Amino acid sequence: MSVTLTPKIRVESLSYSYRRRGSEDVQALDELNLTVGKGEFVSVVGPSGCGKSTLLRVLAGLQRPTGGSAGVLREDGARPLMAPVFQEYSIFPWRTVEDNVRLGLDAAKVPRAESNARVREWISRVGLTGFEKAYPSHLSGGMKQRVALARAFVLEPEVLLMDEPFAALDAQLRKVLQEELLGICQERDYTVFFVTHNLDEAILLSDRIALMTARPGRVEEVYDVPFGHPRTPDLRKSPEFVALEEQIWDRLRGEVQGGRK
Ligand code: ADP
Ligand code: MG
User: Fold this and answer.
1) Is ligand 1 within 6 A of the CB of residue 88?
2) Structure confidence by residue, pLDDT tens digits, 180-216
3) Residue 55 lies in a domain
4) What secondary structure does DSSP assign to 159-188, as a single string?
C-alpha cells in the first residue's frame, strides 16, 4: 500500500549523536531509514531511550543530523508545513489558553475574525471550553497537554509531528482524544508522524508502525496495519487487531530486554 504513496517524509541513513563536553558522545540514532507517504499515519514504537524523541526533533528541524538526512516535502504553500506536539507540556505560562492556541495563527498572519473562530472551535474540540482566559498555572497536566494539541490542530498543517501526546492524560481522556485524532485525519489529509509506546494506540491510529531497536535506534521492522478508513475503536475487538498487537509486542519485548543488558 505504502509503495504507491508519494513520499512526504524521507529519512535516509540518519545518524544523530549528542556531543557532551568532557564525556563520551551518546549515539542516539544509527543509519535510520524511514519513509512516510503523503496522507499516511505512521507510528514509531520502541524501547525507552531508543531515540524516538530525537528522531522527532530532527524532523521538526530543532536538531541537525550528524549523519544522513531527514526531510519533509512542502506541497501546499497555503498551509503551514509542520506542527509539533511534544512529550512535555510546551505551552507558554504567561499566555492564556486562547492566546497559546492562537500563537501559530498570529505568526501566520491569519486575520483575527478567522483565527477567533478557529481558536474557539479547537478549544471546544479538546474539551477546554470555559478555560479560554485561564493561565496554564491553573490547569492540570492533562489540560496543558490539550492546549498543546489544540495549538497544533488549529494550524491544520500538512504534517503533524506528535511525541507521545496522550501519555500524560488519564485513560478516558486518552481514548476521547484518540478518537478525535482519528476523526481529524479522516476529515482532511494529514501526514502524521506519531511516537508512542502504547501499541493499542499505535494500531488503532496508524497505517504503518515502525519498530525501533534499542539505542542506537534504527528501524527494525515496519508493520502494515491491515485496516482501512474510516475506523472506529471497535476495531480493538477484532482478532486481527489482537494478533498484530501480540506480534509487535513479541519483538518489542526483545528490544526492551536487550536494551537493558
Ligand atoms: P526516546 O524518546 O526513545 O525515549 P530520546 O530520543 O529521548 O529517546 O533519547 C535517546 C538517547 O539519547 C537516550 O539514551 C538519551 O539519554 C540520550 N539523550 C537525549 N537527549 C540528550 C541530551 N540532550 N544529551 C545527551 N544525551 C541525550
Ligand atoms: Mg521520548
Assistant:
1) no
2) 899 888 888 899 999 998 999 999 999 999 999 999 9
3) yes
4) EEEEESTTTTS-HHHHHHHHHHHHHHHHHS
